[in-house]
Each structure stands twice: as C-alpha cells, then as structure tokens.
User: Fold this.
Amino acid sequence: MQSHVANQQAAHSHTHSRAGQTHTHNGNVPQTVSFENVTVTYGPIQALSDVSFSVDSGSLSAVVGPNGGGKSTLLKAVVGLVKPDQGRVAVHGRPSSEMRKQIGFVPQLEQVDWNFPVTVWDVAMMGLTPSRGLFRAHSRANREAAAAALATVDLADLRNRSIGELSGGQRRRALLARAIASLPSILLLDEPMSGLDPTAQHSFLDIIDNLRQGGATVMMSTHDLTCVSARASDVALINQRLVAYGPPDEVFLESVLADVFGHQLVVHGSGEALALHHHDHNPSWPGRN
Assistant:
C-alpha cells in the first residue's frame, strides 16, 4: 500500500495520566491523528467530553470502551461524520475536514444493507467514486487500483460475487477494499472483529499488519480485548472521557477495566477479557457511511 504519511513531527511529547500511571509519546515520532479537547453532544446526550490524545504514525491504536461510551463517535469525528461541539481533530497537523482524502473508513456491518444489489467489484470501486465524479467512467488507473485493493484483501477471485452472498469475514474485507482503494494513509475501522471467529479475526488482522508495513496508520474500535492485547500498539480506553491511553499491558489493568465496563466485562479464568457489546442498527447501502 502506498504511503502518504507526511513528515510532520510533533513539537513536543504528550503525556497522559491513567490510574496513577502516565504514558508519554516520543516527540520525535510523527503524530498522525490528534484529538485536542474534543467534546461531542447529540442533543442532551454527551458522547465525548474533553478527549485529548495523539496517535503515532504507523501504529495500530485500539479504541476500547463500553456500549455507548463514544468509540464510534470518536472515529466519526476523524472522518467528518460528526462535528465536535468543542475542540479539534487534526490529521497530519491540519484540520481533519481538509484531509479526508487521506482517510479510509470501514463502518460496522450493521450499518450496511447487504441486500443492496452490487458486486464485490462494485464495492471496491465505490472507494474511488469521489476521484471519478458522478457521471464519468472509471479510468484505467482507478480500475487497476480497485483490482489491487481486492488482491490485497484476498477477494480477487470473488470480484463478481454479490455482496449478499459473502461470509462475515469476506464482507469486512470487501469494505476494507473500498476503504484502501484510494490509498489513504489512515484507516478507521469500526468494530471490525465483531462476530468473527478466531480464524477470520486473525486473517483480517494479518491484512491490517501488512497495510501498516506499507505505511498506514490504523485506529480500530473494538470490544475484543484479547485481540487488542496481541496486536495493538496503544489503547485508548474511552467512556465519554479518555480514561486511559497507552500500551495494552499498561491500560488493561483489572481495576481500570472493572470500573469502566462493570457488568459488561467478562474475565475468563485464563486471564483473557471480553467486553460485551451490543450494536444499534442503522442500515445504509455500502456506498454511504
């Protein structure tokens, strides 16, 4: 995957406190996405309150929290689907509203109408529609980009398959192909692990690792703490506010998790943890986020 990562350097280190600990980002590492005192409300409901942290270039930052804690809202604030009431989201040091071409977004499966009559190829091409224009045919370069995206997510052989016929893991990979077709430097994944069996989870995350090696920075909301522990560079623990931010082994402390999740948290005897989560359903066709 081609990298568009800017050479923007953070002017100073960022330190975050959590449960008596602190985590500092190295000031020499480029900061790809920065949240500065971000507050978002939906009418009388506050989804996010004064959230501030920065995501390092090339990292996989997991956004973890309870149902209704603001995980999806945080990602949507980056891509511009929601506008902060206060604060600022910056991408490569610029307002995120100016950097949308740098961002690829994969929504929750529940937000997509899988009965919409399109093929896997059509879904991949949707990621290039903004560069094409509504009434213009796709260029050869765009067709090649869509083909490359499908090859990256291992769906080239299914390009003519209707999206309604795909398995859960294949559907996520189709949406990922749409997101990466335009070669963004940042990927936002909203609950991509939900409902997948372990084999499908690891296959999906292997693709994400390959994209990171190509220069992508990834933010992923999830309720699966086991996957996060194994793969994520950092974790933002969100419950309207930023509760903790840092490496998984520093954030996933039993006292912190129990306080955030309460009855939604199940800790297995092996020490693995799974945060229970329920989704709202708001169908839309695959070309619409």
